[in-house]
Design goal:
transport; disulfide bond; alpha/beta; 5 strands; Glutaredoxin; protein-disulfide reductase activity
Length: 124
């Protein structure tokens, strides 16, 4: 499955479903983004059970601002609608693979529990 370009309108829908969605925030003028693109594309061929999405930060400036993207490329991973990873910088293929395996291996019940506890302690 190839990578899919996301617009601001599609973003919420794309990340809120069940399963894993990776989002690569990039721009045409960004050298490291261009280096990362084929690695990301290759990983999307390997893992057809994961959605590999891309957001052009030039075209979707509002979304980039909303998500506080300050450096590109930035890679975000969502699982079942929850942001579980966010990091700026191009990843080598091996690191991307490790990230994918890590996200696949997450105990989502535990993740939800941690989020609930965090929200409970930070709500007052």
């Amino acid at each position: 499955m190839a990578t899919k370009n996301l617009t601001t309108e599609e973003f919420e829908n794309a990340i809120s479903g069940e399963g894993i969605t990776l989002v690569d925030f990039w721009a045409d003028w960004c050298g490291p983004c261009k280096m990362f693109a084929p690695i990301y594309e290759q990983a999307s061929e390997t893992h057809d059970d994961i959605t590999f999405a891309k957001v052009d930060t030039e075209a979707e400036q509002q979304l980039a601002a909303q998500l506080q993207i300050t450096a590109i490329p930035t890679l975000m991973a969502f699982r079942d609608g929850i942001l579980v990873f966010s990091q700026a910088g191009a990843l080598p293929a091996k690191s991307l693979e490790e990230l994918v395996q890590g996200v696949k291996g997450l105990d989502m019940q535990d993740v939800r529990k941690q989020i609930a506890e965090h929200q409970a302690t930070h709500s007052h």
